[in-house]
User: Fold Triosephosphate isomerase from Flavivirga jejuensis.
Amino acid sequence: MRKNIVAGNWKMNNDLSQTESLIDDLKNKTKTSNAEVMVAPTFTNLYHAYEALKSTSIEVVAQNMHFAENGAYTGEVNANMLKSVGVETVILGHSERRAYFNETDEMLAKKVDAALANGLRVIFCFGEELADRKSGNHEAVVESQIKNALFHLGVSAFKNIVLAYEPVWAIGTGETASPEQAQDMHAFIRKTLADTYGNDVANGISILYGGSVKPGNAQEIFSKPDVDGGLIGGAALNADDFFAIVNAF
Ligand code: PEP
Assistant:
């Protein structure tokens, strides 16, 4: 049985006191679903969030990392640094990293390797832009993003990978992929994995949907057979909304 997961990506929001207050709100919520819950604060708040949430079932994860082991990479953070503050999972390949920080498939392959080599679990994000969807190229784009960054890996690596399909046109726009569009793409992703790695890998991996998931649409999206949860941006900044989504399974 693959896991249901709801992960909140706080992006570049919340200073320390705002982080504390959101964490307090989250601690007052009750989880009624079987979903694994994760939140991704900024680097500066990771350790504090880890300490504050370690006695709960909410996992603190990182939004990004560099692939190098150490060295002259001003402003960057490596896998070992994340592990040293309690982090066990890192989000890689978010469309904002690709668009604003020029992260390429090649760079992401190196980040995935470094994360896995250091024992981190990876939430690997990918998704097409609006022009790709309009031209009917969305499956080809997604297939190449996945293949370029992940298909050098051996079968066993996929135990530590979660996929997050996030159509760029649906992120932070209020525009959501319809549940059918999400289901179709998730089924396509699973087939792509099955063709190369077999059914055990394809059926065992959790595939999250991301893009304007809200309390009002989460249940319908999560009801689709190949959707195993969500990566949540805006709605993760409010504990009521976030837990309404967590409990939408
Ligand atoms: C995201 O950034 O991963 C995301 C899905 O954002 P939002 O929920 O705000 O669309």
Summary: The mean pLDDT is 97. The chain has one domain: 5-246.
